[in-house]
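Q: What changes when zinc ion is included in the input?
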Amino acid sequence: MSEKLVRGRLLSFCAKPQARDDDSAYRYIEDGALLVRNGTIAAMGSFDEVRTQADEGVQIDDYRGKLIMPGFIDPHMHFPQMQVLASYAGSLLEWLNTYTFVEEQRFSDSVHAARIADHLMDEFIRNGTTTASAFCSVHPGSVDAYFTAASHRNMLMLGGKVMMDREAPEALTDTPQSSYDDTKAGIEKWHGLGRNYYVITPRFAITSTPEQLEAAGALAKEFPDLHIQTHLNENKNEIAFTNELYPEAGDYFGIYEKYGLVGDKSLFGHCIHMSDRERDAMFDTNSVAVFCPTSNMFIGSGHFDWQNMEGDQKQGRIGLATDIGGGTSISMLRTMDEGYKVLQLQGQRLPPLVSFYQATLGNAEALSLQDRIGTLAEGSDADFIVLDATATPVMKLRMETVFDLEQELFLLQTMGDDRAIVETYIAGEALKSKLGG
Ligand code: GUN
Ligand code: ZN
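A: The predicted holo structure follows.
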């Protein structure tokens, strides 16, 4: 049995904060400790209390003064776009056609896919992201590379091959039948193996014929526990083209409804230009809207209306994600910062307690995985991070005038990046410090 104590200032959310200073939404322990046993959090509490539950002579990882919280979760990103990051374009469709659909063709090469997957997982660890949901490329081999790299590090990862059979270069298209067969084979190979979750992944309505969306719907019916991920209402030209391709559906969300692709395991990236009907249909079906602020600002897609998608009764389910490589940073700290600014521009607020809740427990809830990840609660998988709000000289200077937890969190999200992540624990193992520079 492997056992260790990890000591520091513990912060873990138990609910969504209902106000800027809602201290009933989290547990904070100034001199706390986690008892980690066989990859699981066996106890969380004050150091003195938890120490009594550990074996004599137990290893103690001592981070006194530093903040320990659950690892960040990124519920929408594209694994084959690590080398699309920072590509100059005027709009979504131009960006996709000029760079993305060219780059993704390289993932037919399994050596290339394996190399990028290794870089991706290391970059997640460097940035304190312990779980993500990724769109892989159209090639089944890209899924093999992705889950192989995740399994090698014992990371809990979600992903699937994109299904796309039109409106893309021929080398990047499948067919309704091959996408069904390859997805099914991928599910049988990877889903539930170790910590892996396969996600049914029709890229978006433009790149799928009705026959392919039917195949995706058939898979969703056959495997009702699986997640589904796609894109929705990101850009106005995209929406106009989508409506031309599916004139009978009524609206964009209606397409996914028609093919049985909506529900509480369905994740819709962007959701920017939403009609009231689409928003209400998302509420009714418990579907998840995933906010990707650095991507939306970079590609110029628009501003996610958080208040509208959250709903008056807070019935809307929301995720917060990087959308690499439309997004400009793999860091969830940078993503929270940009999210705050997108809301500011609309006269809305995103208090730091809410953004840190969102990047941890909130995103775990968006993925329906809150029983496993997203908190430091006993019984959770031991995926957690250690943060330092004095990581750079200017952060250290600013910390001289920070006097409470909320201010510290806001400083971390406004000024922090991978340098503020001291350590990343995956299933109880400290992995960041093992990476090379
Ligand atoms: N819509 C369809 N594919 C993509 C993609 O790769 N990135 C973004 N941002 N939007 C998409
Ligand atoms: Zn995306």
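Observations recorded in class: The chain has a mean pLDDT of 98.
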